[in-house]
Amino acid sequence: MDSNQVKQRRNTVKLDGETFPFTEGETIYEVAERQRKNIPTLCYDPRLEPFGSCRLCIVDVEGSRNPVASCTTLVTPEMVVSTSSKKINKYRKILLEMVISENHGQLDVDPLRGYASQELKVLADQYQSRTERFGGEHSGISNQVDDNPFILRDYDLCISCYRCVRVCAEQEGDHAINIMHRGFDSQISTEFNGTLKDSACTFCGQCIQTCPTGALADKKAIRNAHLAGEIDKTRSICPYCGVGCSIDLLTKEDKLVGIQPAMDGPANKGALCVKGQFAFDFVQHPDRLTTPLVRGQDGQFHQASWEQALDQAAEGFRKVVQEHGRHSVYGVASGRAPSEAAYLMQKFIRAGFGTNYIDNCSRA
Does the pLDDT at position 52 exceed 70? Predict the structure, then answer.
């Protein structure tokens, strides 16, 4: 047996009695996740550097005096790990009870608050941690004066996992929000404790979608929480620019109630810009046109059929080209239109009029 074969043989870890291969540099949590081992966590986001603050992902490692955080502990050859035991599950139950006591006990938040908003609720039910046996002061203080139109800052639900702070720094590079004070007095804040509009925030919504309690919530989506019906998700592509971010359209019956980024989207991996995240009002806006309007002899717009509208538009184009030439026509496609419409628009200008005067209002 050569050295490579020996090394390959030794690059294995035993999880709950089963032997699995691993790659050097992987954590216990990553290997367990790949093997569909259910290890709970509240501070972990696969897009972020491991933090190890919630301690829910603790596991037993043979030879270690105390349980270790699986998200920050690297796997070593021939390591023996127990991901679930009576003792470990008791620790997790108590940890969750303590987290919930800080969180005002409000677990049943609406899923429209954000992609990860149900994580604490699901774990509390899984470990039967709704005991309310711990009490004391509450650390969260909601920011009710921040009047931005997109992000609700409901820190009464905050559990200080800092996923929002880390995603803003590590994924967006904005550093718009950070941690103020220390210990029990720690709070999520902006620079100088101001509003998000006065900070470096770009309102991408990343902090909303990673929050495991709904403390940071989508203001526009939760306005539709009162509507009856189950939430359905439909995978689509954001039309606002050429990146092609994958999104999930949230609907209740025939109404669009919100948008969430697709965490497995090949182009965005859970990221969106402010337009892709929040600019969906136009779909069902009361002022949106539902029938063509044609300007009459009186200078006013009047309802017309599609045939009338298209004939009048075509006649207008012909007249302009005859009087001023083909370069007098310039096309600007809408970022709110689907990709197919953008393609037809450029074809209409380039092939129809023989000019390259075509642009799109979308900007990445």
Answer: yes
